[in-house]
Amino acid sequence: MAATYDFPSDLLAGQEELHRVRAELLSLLKRLPWSVEPLDGFSETQGWRKVERPASPGWSPDEQAQVELLRKRERELAVFVTCHHYWTDVQGPDAVDARSALKHAPAAPVPLREGATRGD
User: Fold this and answer.
1) Contact indicator for 81, 14 with CB cutoff of 8 Å
2) DSSP state letter for 108
3) How far apart are CA 112 and CA 118, in angstroms?
4) Predicted local confidence at residue 2, as pLDDT
5) Of the candidates 45, 42, 66, 46, which has an alpha carbon nearest to the alpha carbon of residue 56?
6) Rounded distance, CA 29 to CA 26, Å?
7) 3-state class of 9 per DSSP?
8) 14: exposed, middle or buried (C-beta count within 10 Å: 0-12, 13-18, 19+)?
9) How far is Cα 25 from Cα 60, in angstroms, rounded to an integer?
10) Nearest to 11 by CA among 78, 96, 109
């Protein structure tokens, strides 16, 4: 039987936000051009694998700022989760198992606003 862990609510919330920020960053990066700076396209067919890139208009200042903001928040959350005081009481292989359990812990339920039902 797998061990269960009683994670503090702030650690669970931090991990959940880290998942959300990483997903948002990944989604943004997939939508953006391949190059931050405007570059011509190229095609390399002579190497061990074919590489082609279309011309890139680059990222706008707003897009660059948005990526930087998400990366900064991702770093802050990663530090918060990995340096949380909870980990001082977990040692050795238990720490690896607990960290894995935290990464896969279900999100804490979002409280309903007053008078709402789950179908709202």
Assistant:
1) yes
2) P
3) 8
4) 62
5) 42
6) 5
7) helix
8) buried
9) 16
10) 78
The CA distance from 20 to 27, in Å, is 11
Tokens 């928040």: give the residue.
73
Half-sphere CA count of 44, side-chain side, radius 13 A = 5
DSSP notation for 24-74? HHHHHHHHS-S-SS-B--EEE-SSSS-EEE--B----HHHHHHHHHHHHHH
Q: Tell the residue number behind the tokens 């897009």, with chain if given.
A: 63
pLDDT digits (tens, 9 = 90+) for 3-57: 788 999 999 999 999 999 999 999 999 999 999 999 999 998 888 888 899 999 9
Q: Amino acid identity of 99?
A: R
Phi/psi of residue 35, nearest 5 degrees: -120, 140
The residue whose two tokens read 């989604």 is 27
| Average pLDDT, integer, range 86-108 | 89
